[in-house]
Amino acid sequence: MPKIIQPQDITLADLKERFSLQKSTDESFFDECLEYLPELTDLEKQYLERVKTNYISLVENSPLLEEAVKLVILSPLLDLAGFYRSPFQIATEEPIEISEEIAITDGEENNGIQKEIIKGRIDVFVLYKQFWLLVIESKRTNFSLQKAIPQALTYMLSSPNLIQSPQKNIYGFVTNGEDFQFLRLVIIDNKPVYALSERLTLYKRENELYNVLILLKKLGQMII
């Protein structure tokens, strides 16, 4: 019987061992996302100020659960980024499954092959003509992004685009409501390579939701 593994139990070390995943050391890895950035309108800035105020007000009482983070923070960002409109499509809770065979060594008599299956559901992903543009993983407010990153990378590695169009980038976005980070994954020399953006946070004087929305809009522009 195959062993079922949940994506939230996967670590970066697991991904390195299973998929030869490597972290890029190239400081310019994200440069294409940072050129010719779109500008926000005054109305968009006003809306983002309201989103930040709503969030800060709500977490004063108690941490937000994952569904509340999606409602209060993620949904307005996707709306303003234009991902709810053509030519984009949104999919939620999409199941993924990655199967692999692992060599087992447990003494001379128990050597063999163990089939393992990674099963999970992607919170949200944005498609353009069946291409996975952006994989989004959201967590509750007291959840560390460091734990969300391997899970998001696992989902990104399951993208059919990595096989069909390995020269294409797959982007990821993780948030717990107050912190935000982007991921980029691409195949280089037949191996998956990833990098992380600078982490953005709501707990700064300036509203870093501006930068989050700018980057989301930029990703949408890059694929069309």
Integer tally of domains: 1
Major sheet characteristics: 9 strands, mixed
Counting DSSP H or I runs of 4 or more residues, the number of helices is 6
The chain-level structural class is: alpha/beta
Taking all residues together, what is the mean pLDDT?
88
Description:
The chain is an alpha/beta fold. The protein contains 6 helices and 9 strands; from the N terminus they run βαβααβββααββββα. The radius of gyration is 19 Å and the shape is globular. The longest helix is centred in the first third of the chain and has 18 residues, at about 40-60. About 35% of the residues lie in helices and about 30% in strands. The chain has one domain (about 5-224).
Question: Descriptors for this entry?
Answer:
about 220 residues; alpha/beta; about 35% helix; about 30% strand; 9-stranded mixed β-sheet; 6 helices
